[in-house]
Amino acid sequence: MMQSFQHHAQAFEQFLQEQQLFSREPRNLYEPCSYILSIGGKRIRPSVCLMAAALYKGITPDVYWGAAAIELFHNFTLIHDDIMDNAPLRRGKTTVHELYSTTTAILSGDVMNIMAFQCLERVKPELIPVLLGIFNRTAIEVCEGQQLDMDFEQQDHVTEEAYIHMIAQKTAVLLACSMQIGALIAGATEEDAARLYTFGKNLGIAFQLQDDYLDTFGDGDKVGKQIGGDIQANKKTFLAITAMLQASDTQKTAINILAHGHGTTKVQDTIQLYNTLNVGSICKQAIDAYTQKALQALNEVQVADEKKAPFRELVQFLINRDY
Amino acid sequence: MMQSFQHHAQAFEQFLQEQQLFSREPRNLYEPCSYILSIGGKRIRPSVCLMAAALYKGITPDVYWGAAAIELFHNFTLIHDDIMDNAPLRRGKTTVHELYSTTTAILSGDVMNIMAFQCLERVKPELIPVLLGIFNRTAIEVCEGQQLDMDFEQQDHVTEEAYIHMIAQKTAVLLACSMQIGALIAGATEEDAARLYTFGKNLGIAFQLQDDYLDTFGDGDKVGKQIGGDIQANKKTFLAITAMLQASDTQKTAINILAHGHGTTKVQDTIQLYNTLNVGSICKQAIDAYTQKALQALNEVQVADEKKAPFRELVQFLINRDY
């Protein structure tokens, strides 16, 4: 299971180690970049970039550089997001701004962002203009998604449509872009690369909805964190938004009272209300709908069906996970 | 005087207005970008980009986009530098992080950085790979310069060489890159573009040294700020570094006592010591040497000599200024 993904993740990891991208001066600038990359992460984006390339002419050094561009950009956003969210921990380790300083985290993040663009230089020149265009558009969407996420925290009412748009920008488009870039570098047609983009975007939305679901309805032991964190923090998740849409006026009042309270039964009372309102199964239906959209786009990709098996495995793995 | 520069600065300003680059959603993300551009700045970098292009095939829309990439990048660094320096004011106006928030300043800066790369997309495709390479290298050097500047604040001893390297990275290379990019887009040979880069880099160093000189030896009324700010703040300027190099052990002790003191005569006592040590004229000599290097590179540029007049005017204007 997931053999293909694991294989690509390891190959990318080795490539990254060999490049020693951040073994340079001044140390105070580059050490935090090495640090954020060293504390793990599943390398999902570069791995799917390699997987997409494997559908076509295969994984040349160019493809690794495209994958590296994505992974560097992603890690830059983690450094800056952690400052903005005031997060002390990332993947169980101290965040960059906590370990060094906010100043360091800003500047090291900035240089990592630019070095992502430098990775694109390593791709064959005739592809650079189109890749730069895709990369720029996606990177801007990621910033917009982060802004919308922060804006929503200040808003009383967020529609389901606006929420899906936000998570698409904030997380799904980068997964989509990874596949599109991998495919293009390996010689895919623009149409096929666009299909893989659609696949990745819908899969990314489904994945994020699954995250929302597990935070409330998951098994705490398996998920590896306290269940109900989103409810405690009054986060505007798909579940919270759906609950407000489904609720009667009386139930809306109850939700708001629960949200603004800090009682010991806040989480379990909210979950009980969610169950009454069928919120869990509505979320499951949405996950299923986006997964189907993703698989449909994958079906339309013009390569032999057996080559797509690793992507189907990936979908099963990401969507059926209970952690 | 400086007619050519003013003309190009105005033309660029009009281009920027017409593009309405930041008239888009979400407003909380893009409004700070409009704001930083609206509070002025002399548009030196885009103007010299246009001036460089005028030496060759002239100023096409491509050239404006190259100039915009540079100006957006520069303004992004201002937003982030102001956070790092804890600066309340920029060009006499409230800084972005003060007016909005640090979080906003980080994210709006990030998107402005990426939009600088997006401007490069608008240049003809066959030039994009080489321009991207120059832009990436320069942008990384600017980050390294900012890091070195911060590192130096923590160090007791900084050499003159290290200081020149720092100001070159932090400010001069972007001026140099502006001219190189403008020239390349307008059809200059790589050799000529490299000569303009050398011109811009040395001019940028001379300009920065002139800034150091004026902060201590300028006429307060003309410079428009209190003289001696660098001395008050114990900044490691070219003057402070030169003083330590020239000083006897006794004088070094005197300098250190002055530096760590806060007496009312701190500035005038330090200036007196600088005068004894000839620091002002050594700085003037360095400014002259870098100006000569710049002019020599300009002489070697393979275009009719009369075309270079605007650049020679620019040098006189920047270096002979007493404000």
Protein described:
Two copies of one chain form a homodimer. By secondary structure, chain A is mainly α. Chain A has two domains: 188 residues, Farnesyl Diphosphate Synthase (Orthogonal Bundle), CATH 1.10.600.10; 135 residues, Orthogonal Bundle (Farnesyl Diphosphate Synthase), CATH 1.10.600.10. Helices cover 75% and strands 1% of the residues of chain A. A two-stranded antiparallel ribbon of chain A has the order 1-2. In chain A, α3 runs antiparallel to α4, α4 runs antiparallel to α6 and α15 runs antiparallel to α16. The radius of gyration of chain A is 20 Å and the shape is globular. The mean pLDDT of chain A is 95.
Summarize the structure.
The structure is a homodimer of 323-residue chains. Chain A has 323 residues and is mostly helical.
Write the layout of secondary structure elements.
The structure is a homodimer of 323-residue chains.
Chain A: H1 3-19, H2 27-38, H3 44-54, H4 61-84, E1 89-90, E2 93-94, H5 96-99, H6 102-120, H7 128-153, H8 160-185, H9 190-217, H10 220-223, H11 229-232, H12 238-246, H13 249-260, H14 266-276, H15 279-300, H16 309-320
Antiparallel strand pairs in A: 1-2
